[in-house]
Amino acid sequence: MEKTIERQFSTGVIEQIRNKFNLDSEYKKLGDFENYVYEVYENGQPKILRVTHSSHRSKQQLESEIDWIRYLHQSGIRIPAVYLSPSGKLVEEFAVENSFFFASLFEKASGYSIKIDEPAFNEKLFYKWGRMIGKMHRHTKDYQQSKGIVSRYHWDENDLLDFEKYYTGENSLLLESAKSVVAKIKQLPQNKNSYGLIHTDIHHGNFFYDGEEIYVFDFDDASYQYFVSDIAIPLYYAVNSKHFFGTREERNQFAHKFLTAFLDGYNEENQLTREWLERIPLFLQLRDIDLYAVFNKKIAPEDRNERVVHWMSEIKERIEKNVPIVDISV
Questions:
Q1: Taking the CA of residue 326 as centre, how many other CA atoms within 13 Å lie in the half-sphere pointing to its CB?
Q2: What is the C-alpha separation between 153 and 220, in angstroms, rounded?
Q3: Residue 108: pLDDT above 80?
């Protein structure tokens, strides 16, 4: 979380939120990268509280995200329910200085967090992963936002694509290479079968697994984007996590195993043409340029640990060489 937001956030804000939602006094922080996320309790029952600063998302953006979540949940997708506050609101706002914090309450997902070094991180999981995303894509083709809900933003409206802002001090080659990736994607055709509202960030840290089913959460980055991006992102993070310090050959071998099982599952629920699947490398490159901006936005140079420095160095090299994280064929 940016330091300016941390200075505004305090236990006083948490207490206001806890009182507004009639929550128990006990709570524990789960994350604080782009949002503050807590496990909270209502009469002893665990729930998930998300607190968002107005510099990250507007109230309208949060309401549009939650509207889509509720649609998917009502369609039978295994994602957490969203709870109304006692005053009947999905998003409550709390003024702090000249800005706001917004709070929403969610069901705690079933299952457990999967680790890349455990036996369950295997082809069965990759198949379930792909099938869940395919099912989400199939249902979202019929999604119509509720009355009064403003449409969620499109991928190219993402603040992170303001490269002059987040690539400050970088060489012109890096900047031009990043812009080139975005330009190529903007030229792609859009239709109901290739483009829609998607999660955009379903890596293994954003779902729980019970050995049979996947329960997706954290829809904060949901936007209108090409469906193929929701295939590229799991591939990107699975490869990067499994072989963080690995060779390109190790990554390529794992990518083939992952993608084969993943697409077997995806194709049971939804189909993309080979032409679209062949564009996965382009969307892997988009993730690199997004992440490079995220690191520059969220983590000051003096706060970057060895892992972040290594990750950024690899990303920078790939952007300059105009190559994705892996070489794949479909």
A1: 29
A2: 12
A3: yes
Give the predicted TM-score (pTM) of the model. Answer: 0.92
**Are both 83 and 183 inside the same structural domain?**
no
169/290 same-domain check: yes
119, pLDDT greater than 70: yes
> Does 33 share its domain with 172?
no
Q: Over 80: is that where the pLDDT of 7 sits?
A: no
Tokens describing residue 130: 């792909």
Tokens found for residue 328: 């794949």
Each residue of 31-83: pLDDT tens digit?
A: 987 899 999 999 999 999 999 999 889 999 999 999 999 999 999 999 999 99
DSSP 148-212: TPPPPPBGGG-GGG-HHHHSTT--HHHHHHHHHHHHHHHTS---TTTEEEE-S---GGGEEE-SS
Of 73, 88, 107, which residue sits at a domain end? 107
Within 10 A of 214 (CB to CB), how many other CB atoms are there?
24
328 domain residue, yes or no:
no
- In sequence order, what are the beta bridge partners of 46? 41
> Do 93 and 149 share a domain, yes or no?
no
